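Backbone shape codes
____________________
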Amino acid sequence: MLRRAGFIAAKDLRLSVGGGQGLVQAMLLGLLLIFLFSLSRPTGELVSGQAAGAIFWLASAFGLVLVFNDLFSLEEGQGCRLGLLSSPVPEHAVWLGKGLAGFALLVISQAVFLPAAAVFLGQDIQGSWGVLILALIGVDWGLAALGALLGALAQGQGARESLFSVILFPLLLPVLLGGIRIFAGVFSGDAASDQGLWAGIIVAFDAVFTAAGAFLFPFLYTGEE
């Protein structure tokens, strides 16, 4: 299954980077959000580390919606979903492949958002880079695992795409709050006393989202009751 998931992830990345619009739209929307929020700070004052972390993860969350809408619409537009369902590839491999591709595209987007936060929000990495990278990986996997599950709801229909956003954001709140708290400490250099607690919450919800995705995705993707 891992091998087939890798093939699907590689295919999605090639199509998204080569001809898809999700990655470009996610980057542009994220940069626009960061820039607009930077205009709200008074002249000569810096944005707090916690506010900067919230803006960074808000940009990432909106980018996530665009990335997964694009990943699933690539197959819907070409009528390839029925081909996948008719092939011997298990639905779990499709979910994992979509999740890995979305994870990679989200990381690429954040490689643009992080310098933008430094420039427009006046932030600097004063804490541990190791903590930042681990928090980034942990939160991003939770976002990607849930995005790959709920992305199957969109499948090219406008109403379902709206439903995707409405359902996704409330479920992501625990991992997003954990990312915001940890990033606040990394930006300010003052590690929060509850940093370990938030890291545990992120890991716990990653496990929940992964288990839910592996179990529920076949029903959502195939349309079975």
Helices lie at 2-18, 22-38, 49-78, 80-86, 91-120, 129-154, 158-188, 195-222. The chain has one domain: 2-222. The mean pLDDT is 83.
